[in-house]
Structures are given as C-alpha cells and as structure tokens.
C-alpha cells in the first residue's frame, strides 16, 4: 500500500470525528499438500488479499472491508464508515511513523526451496511408516500446510500516526492414523507447527511422529473403557495445555473481561490459582506457532504474565476493549483475515515450568489418570465450565503407569481447576493448534509442563 493512498483514506475516514482510524492490508498465500487413502488427494494454493477499515469514537466501533484496493474503493469504504459519526474532525494525518519487525521469526528457507514433488515424497515416508505399523491401519492421512503472510497496518490516533509492516511465515505437518477392528475405529495424530519456512521439514522427524500416531490408534482398539468419578488427574505437557487455553485463557481475554462476563473480571491482584501456577501469554517466543513481531492492530507482541504464583496479574487486552477497561493494549489483538473485526486473542499461552519431574508426579499419585493428549473440547467463557476429551489416557496405580484406556472426558470449571493444581513439572513445551473465536480462526500455541490436578470429574464407563 502506498503511504499517500493510506493517508488519503484515513483522512476521509476521520472527517466526521472518529478518534481512531485503522487501515489493515493483508496479502496471504496458503498452500496445502495432502495424501489420503494412498493417493495425493489435494494440492492447492489460495490467496487472501484485501483490506479492512476500522473507526472508533469513544466506545463506538465500526468496521468494513473490501478486496478492491484501489484508492477510490478504499476511500468510498472509509466515507461509508465515517457516516456512522456526525462530529468534527479531531485528527489530521500528515505523515506516518514507520515501524518494521526485528526479523526474529524470519524463515531460514522460503517454502519454494522444496518442490511440491519433494513435499509429497516427504509425506509419503510418514504414510508408509503408518501403514507398516500394523495391518489394522485402514487410512493414513498426511498433510503439509504452509502460509506466507504480509500485513501493513496504518493507525491514526490523537497521539500518533504510524504504519507497521510484518511478515509471518508458518509451516505445519500432520499425520493422522485410523485403525479399525471388528467395526471399531480409533485414531492417533501428530501435528507440530512453527513460525518457520521450509527448514521446518528437515527439523521435524515426521516418520517417527507418524509411526507413534499409528501405534496409538492400534493400541486404543484393545484398550478398556476409562473409569468415571472424581479422582486425581495428571495432564501431560505440550498440547495438554489446551485445557488451560480454553478453560482459563479465553476468560482472561479482554473480550470477556470488558463485558464483565468472565469469572476473572475485577480480580486483579487476587489469588485465583494455587501457588505453583504461573501462566503466560507470550507472542514473542522465537519461531512460536502463535508468534509475530506485531499483532493485527500494529502493537508490538509482548510477554504477558497473566498469573504469577497463583495471583492474577494481568489480562490480554486490545485497543477497543482497553477503552472499556481503562487498560493499555498488550499486543494480543488478532484476526483470521481482513474480513474480520480484530479482537483480543491468545498467541502462545502456557503454564510455566515448575520444579517436579514427570516421574515424581506419577510416583506421588496412588490412583488416578494420566491424560497425555487431547483431541477436542469446549468451554463457556461466561461460566468457565469446560468439557474436554483426552485421546491418550493411562490409569495410574501405586505411583506407576498401569493401563492405557479409551478416551476420558474431563468436566469442570477453569477457575476451580486452577486452585487444585498441586504439582507442576519441569518439562514445559508448546504445541501448535488453531483457535476459533469472534475474529475467526488463528494460529495459537498451547502448552504446559506435566502437572497434577488433585481432583477432577472424569466421565467414562464405570
């Protein structure tokens, strides 16, 4: 986007008294290569290209978007949005302060360093490993997903007019094995991703991950049903963090806090978790799946300590919700594309490492469950009640892993679980995922070390 055009568009938008104007320009390429049922099922590429204009005045906000980036089209859009207000101009844009990323998450290799044929062969190695694991594997689905995104974000306020340029390159691979026997089906998955380029492929042991996914699927076929009741639950590291992401992360977003619809609203400085819990949202993790140099309204991404030693320290805040909360933005405002109004979203959200080893946590548990991975769940941000399914679960007996069991369903309230975490491991890791909310689906990492909740409600079969 030419700065002169952006200046004219924003001045047209600000003519009727808006005290904030934003022009968000996006150019994103998304590519997918997929193998399914022993064939190349999909090789596709799509372009997301357009711009959105947002205006604020006090606690009023309007937004519109277009895929026509001509000056006339953008100016017409700006004038239509400006018609929502009827005041006098308070901001005049003359020039922009320019900000660029520090290159912290830049790829070492462009995606084009590998041909499509090479990526297909890479995936086929994982596919072969899954089928060779057992004759019970009836399908091996392998996927490579690449995105390369450029954004320009122009903002004008009474204090500053700026333009931010950022590039986000992400790569993710997935291996999904389906095993079947006697009419029953079970699945296993492996799905890492990072803000990296083609170097990610060489750095990821796709064959080993695919093989483990197939072994998990086969093992679950003969696993007994999970017991039910109230019991201690050990939650594994990496994607075990999705429980905190959903049950506690969303209620700590400005969207919920600013409307006083979260159980954590108004509790800054209060004890909301046990002493061993420190929780962080960090968009600055180097090459993290949810990382960027700037968020989607041009604020620098930050390391935001949400809970420290059990005390609520901060919320995740965007500019608009910050007005309701009298709080500054924390660099966690995101959107799927230019078609979405941005709002507060998590980036890389995790519980920080503690002092116990995973072995010590298991040894200290007389009886309970060890939930290694999760494959789905939901939460009501207003009540903070959650429902999650663990896809890989073991019974723990006498301080040792005992039997692999079928999927366990964990039910409870996020604020309650936080107070019942009594042991936190030293093996914190992040895992890639996609988070869907009001501003669309965005790349978000969830993580934690292995930890124990002294009592949770488990749904299974008695």
Low-confidence stretches: none
Structural class: alpha+beta
Number of helices: 10
Q: What is the CA-CA span between the terminal residues?
A: 62 Å
How would you sum up the major sheet?
8 strands, mixed
- Our Rg estimate from Cα atoms comes to 24 Å
Helix content: 10-25%
| Overall average residue pLDDT | 95
Shape: globular
Residue fraction in strands: 35-45%
How many strands in all? 23
Quick summary:
The chain is α+β, with helices and mostly antiparallel strands. The protein has 10 helices and 23 strands.
List the helices and strands and how they pair.
Layout: H1 3-13, E1 20-36, E2 39-57, E3 60-66, H2 71-82, E4 97-100, H3 116-133, E5 137-157, E6 161-181, E7 184-190, E8 193-194, H4 199-203, H5 206-221, E9 229-235, H6 242-249, H7 254-257, E10 279-282, E11 303-308, E12 311-312, H8 319-325, E13 333-334, E14 343-344, E15 348-351, H9 358-363, E16 367-380, E17 385-397, E18 400-405, E19 408-413, H10 414-419, E20 421-424, E21 429-437, E22 440-448, E23 451-459
Parallel strand pairs: 4-6, 9-16, 15-22
Antiparallel strand pairs: 1-2, 1-5, 2-3, 5-6, 6-7, 6-8, 9-23, 10-11, 10-15, 11-12, 13-14, 16-17, 17-18, 17-19, 19-23, 20-23, 21-22
Explain how this protein is built.
With 462 residues, the chain is α+β, with helices and mostly antiparallel strands. It is 20% helix and 42% strand. The protein has 10 helices and 23 strands. The chain has helices at 3-13, 71-82, 116-133, 199-203, 206-221, 242-249, 254-257, 319-325, 358-363, 414-419; strands at 20-36, 39-57, 60-66, 97-100, 137-157, 161-181, 184-190, 193-194, 229-235, 279-282, 303-308, 311-312, 333-334, 343-344, 348-351, 367-380, 385-397, 400-405, 408-413, 421-424, 429-437, 440-448, 451-459. The strands form 4 sheets. Strands 1, 2, 3, 4, 5, 6, 7 and 8 form an 8-stranded mixed sheet that branches. A 6-stranded mixed sheet has the order 12-11-10-15-22-21, covered by helices on one side. Strands 9-16-17-19-23 form a 5-stranded mixed barrel. β2 (39-57) and β3 form a beta hairpin. α1 (3-13) runs parallel beside α2 (71-82) and α3 (116-133) packs parallel to α5 (206-221). 49% of the residues are buried.
């Amino acid at each position: 986007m030419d700065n002169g055009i952006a200046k004219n568009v924003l001045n047209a938008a600000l003519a009727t008294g808006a005290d904030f104007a934003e022009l968000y320009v996006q150019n994103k390429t998304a590519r997918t290569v997929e193998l399914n049922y022993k064939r190349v099922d999909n090789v596709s590429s799509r372009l997301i290209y357009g711009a959105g204009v947002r205006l604020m005045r006090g606690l009023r906000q309007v937004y519109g978007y277009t895929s026509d980036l001509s000056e006339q089209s953008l100016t017409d859009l700006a004038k239509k949005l400006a018609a929502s207000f009827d005041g006098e101009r308070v901001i005049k844009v003359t020039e922009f302060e320019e900000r660029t990323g520090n290159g912290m998450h830049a790829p070492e290799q462009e995606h084009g360093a590998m041909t499509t044929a090479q990526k297909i062969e890479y995936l086929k190695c994982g596919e072969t490993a899954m089928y060779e694991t057992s004759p019970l594997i009836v399908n091996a689905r392998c996927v490579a997903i690449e995105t390369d995104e450029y954004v320009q974000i122009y903002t004008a306020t009474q204090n500053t007019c700026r333009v931010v340029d950022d590039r986000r390159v992400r790569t993710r691979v997935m291996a999904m094995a389906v095993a079947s026997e006697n009419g029953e089906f079970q699945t296993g998955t492996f799905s890492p991703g990072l803000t990296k380029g083609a170097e990610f492929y060489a750095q990821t042991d796709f064959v080993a991950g695919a093989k483990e996914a197939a072994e998990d699927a086969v093992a679950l076929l003969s696993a007994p049903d999970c017991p039910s009741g109230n019991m201690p639950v050990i939650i594994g590291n990496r994607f075990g963090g999705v429980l905190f992401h959903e049950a506690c992360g969303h209620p700590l977003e400005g969207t919920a806090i600013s409307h006083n619809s979260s159980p954590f609203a108004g509790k800054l400085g209060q004890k909301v978790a046990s002493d061993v819990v420190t929780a962080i949202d960090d968009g600055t993790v180097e090459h993290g799946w949810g990382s960027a140099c700037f968020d989607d309204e041009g604020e620098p991404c930050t390391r935001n300590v949400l809970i420290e030693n059990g005390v609520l320290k901060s919320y995740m805040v965007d500019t608009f919700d910050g007005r309701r909360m009298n709080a500054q933005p924390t660099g966690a405002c995101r959107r799927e594309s230019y078609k979405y109004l941005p709002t507060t979203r998590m980036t890389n959200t995790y519980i920080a490492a503690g002092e116990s080893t995973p072995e010590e946590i298991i040894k200290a548990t007389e009886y309970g469950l060890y939930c290694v991975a999760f494959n789905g769940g939901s939460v009501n941000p207003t009540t903070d009640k959650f429902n999650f399914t663990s896809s890989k679960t073991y019974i723990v007996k006498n301080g040792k892993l005992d039997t692999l069991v079928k999927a366990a369903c964990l039910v409870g309230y996020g604020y309650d679980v936080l107070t019942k975490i009594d042991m936190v491991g030293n093996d914190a890791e992040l895992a890639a995922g996609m988070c869907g909310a009001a501003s669309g689906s965005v790349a978000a990492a969830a993580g934690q070390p292995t930890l124990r909740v002294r009592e949770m409600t488990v749904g299974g079969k008695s």
